[in-house]
Amino acid sequence: MVNEDATQRIEAKLDQMLRLMALQATNTLKQTPAIQLLAAAGLERKLIADLLNTTPNTVSVTLSTSKAKAKRAKSSGEEPR
């Protein structure tokens, strides 16, 4: 049976790996595509904000705006930008 201390160390290492992978995946992207990518990967808005040095509110607004643009483009038959 793994003790609690070992479990916490494993979780900390996994968190570090997740953050490094997210930063590597988004290092060449601008903020909006980076937010979209990390959200699509299932990351929470607070974590996305921490990774991209912004606020959770900015992440929420960006995702909401992106969703609205995609919905408008779909209803008009255009490709979303």
Mean of all residue-level pLDDT scores:
91
Radius of gyration: 16 Å
How many separate structural domains? 1
**Total number of β-strand segments?**
0
Order of helices and strands: HHHH
Summing up helix and strand content along with how strands pair, one would put the structural category as mainly alpha
End-to-end Cα distance, whole Å, is 51 Å
Number of helices: 4
The major pleated sheet works out as: none
Share of helix, binned: over 70%
Taken as a percent bin, the fraction of beta residues is under 5%
Write up what this structure looks like.
This protein has 81 residues and is an all-alpha fold. The chain has one domain. It contains 4 helices and no strands. Helix 2 runs antiparallel to helix 3. The longest helix has 23 residues. The protein is elongated, with a radius of gyration of 16 Å. The model has no long low-confidence stretch (mean pLDDT 91).
